[in-house]
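Quick question: what would this complex look like in 3D?
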Amino acid sequence: MNSYYEQILKEIYHDVQRLKDNGIVAQYIPELASIDPSKFGVHLCTSENENYGVGDHEEKFSIQSIGKVLSLALAFQQKGEDLWDRVGVEPSGNPFNSLWQLEYEHGKPRNPLINSGAIVICDILCSLHKHPHSEFLDFVRKVAGNHSIEYNQTVANSEKKLGFRNAALINMMKASGNIHNEIDEVLNLYYQMCSIEMSCKELASTFLLFANHGKLISSGEQIITSSMAKRINAIMQTCGFYDEAGDFSFKVGLPGKSGIGGGIVAVHPGKYAVAVWSPRLNKKGNSVRGMELLERLTTKTGLSIF
Ligand code: GLU
């Protein structure tokens, strides 16, 4: 056992827990607004598959935008470099559901980790698969090494009912020719992808794929090429935190992705994947405690990718 990580995680978890948690739980998805804001967990999984967790690290939560990395991985695996004809790789510097930039740039989203980009990725998956919902879930389960991973249909439905901005984004892209399937079919997949539930433990072990150059730790199977894993990590580094990606990079120094369910996952290539969950979010939509804890983790260990 690498008690080094265990000791540091315990220490920083308790330090961060003592700080005032002044964010607010995301309100715009009714089903998520009622979550207990005091939930707090962290789990780190090393590339030797050693596991360390503190707090609510085994409790499932809605991974939301973190799922965008997994849909990107599946689409990239299947479509290769052609993917970049439909979606860019530049940080947006804008909120995740921003409309004006998409209009200005003729319906080609800046990157696959903002809503418009993830919706295009879902459109690509709808074109590639006969049963995209089950095939995407099978992919996630395989990477997670866990067949119990599920969508939460109640969360997906709750979001779809009020997802007016996402409807605007997809309609704008359809008008520009960047959506090839039926709007409803693509949005259904998008909302299901966002509704996946995982615990910090499950999330960290799923994201080991990106820490392990695209190979499953369990079987050694190469799921995506090491070049693809490197590129996905680069996109997480520059685009993974809405319009706060620079700040996360500056303070934490790891590729990662956040979701409005309060989760954050970060990857140290060759070393570990770590997931934190705390539902109170800052103004940019990132977990307040999650950001703080990860900053302390890389500061204490002196290990970041820089
Ligand atoms: N399902 C959310 C949306 O489309 C995801 C947002 C997020 O986690 O950033 O608005």
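Answer marked as accepted. The chain has a mean pLDDT of 95.
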